[in-house]
């Protein structure tokens, strides 16, 4: 008897392919779905950029489904991807922030639009190739856990999930280390067993986000200033900078010591430079905070948190605030805290939640 119908988001890579294989073996009624998101047969996209949703990736996913013996479909989410990922990505850089597009893609595309499409197809679950785990407690509450492979764990980009999404989500590859996933693919003679992992933003395969953004907004030159407000030089646009950046400042070495971007002010169109020590912060705020359980845990004074995908976790305390905000205090200073990135909270292997980094507390609404 089938354990239920599951829509597997298949990118044509080894992780999502093995996810489909494992679920099929476990007795689920698997349907592979590859999403058309960006760059396929688009006249406005250079040939070098046609990597996301490439014909090769679609063919790989289709051939894997054929090998497993499950159906495969190709669905068009280009409009949604443009609105919720591409436009968001460009707008954040235009605001002097540094976005993480995978967060928007997971939140809106995979776990919103795809989930709704799956329900339309009378599916019970959706599944992805993310390295994370979902566990249901005795009281019926769903928990999000790190993947068993610490080097591949992707829980950081899953913090936006809630109880509704987790109740319908399967993450089979999170139970295995990466080398085991490749071994399973090889033993099953899947053609993607040795396919390299993607290392770039899927819609910017040449990794030149500055060029991508500059084609979609008009950068406005402004001043490079130090922490005292002294003008050190000019810049071509705030969209080309991120917190912690040292190279490409346009000062041509005309400084006595290395300088780093410590702040980007979209309102004044200024990029603030300082010393390495000026990048250290023990306090930050988060907006649009999501708690996996649906409510803030009672005690968040002894958690760990990390401020970017590849960062290490650090001891911290989290104080929930009104309107979806939280204040986070680290025991030790963190380097290059960057607005637009996420800060995610953990209790050992369990993800408590997370939000989007802000450098200032929310302004209280006026009374009356």
How does the SSE layout of this entry go?
Elements: E1 5-9, H1 14-25, E2 29-36, H2 55-68, E3 72-76, H3 78-94, H4 101-120, E4 125-127, E5 132-136, E6 142-146, H5 163-166, E7 169-170, H6 178-187, H7 209-214, E8 222-226, E9 231-235, E10 260-265, E11 270-274, E12 280-291, E13 303-306, E14 314-320, E15 326-335, E16 342-347, E17 350-358
Helix pairs in contact: 1-2, 1-6, 3-4
Tags for this model:
alpha/beta, five-stranded parallel beta sheet, six-stranded antiparallel β-barrel, 368 residues
Structure commentary:
There is one protein chain. With 368 residues, the protein is an alpha/beta fold. Helix content is 23%, strand content 28%. It is built from seven helices and 17 strands. The strands form four sheets. It has a six-stranded antiparallel β-barrel with strand order 12-15-14-13-16-17. Strands 3-2-1-4-7 form a five-stranded parallel sheet, with helices on both faces. α3 (78-94) runs antiparallel to α4 (101-120). It is globular.
Largest sheet: 6 strands, antiparallel, barrel
CA gyration radius, whole angstroms: 22 Å
Shape: globular
For the termini, the CA-CA separation is: 62 Å
Low confidence ranges? 40-51
Question: What is the helix content?
Answer: 10-25%
Q: Mean pLDDT, as a whole number?
A: 90
Strand order of the largest sheet: 12-15-14-13-16-17
Output the structural class.
Answer: alpha/beta
DSSP strand (E) fraction?
25-35%
Q: What series of H and E elements makes up the topology?
A: EHEHEHHEEEHEHHEEEEEEEEEE
Count of extended strands: 17
Give a brief rundown of this model.
With 368 residues, the protein is an alpha/beta fold. It has helices spanning 14-25, 55-68, 78-94, 101-120, 163-166, 178-187, 209-214, and strands at 5-9, 29-36, 72-76, 125-127, 132-136, 142-146, 169-170, 222-226, 231-235, 260-265, 270-274, 280-291, 303-306, 314-320, 326-335, 342-347, 350-358.
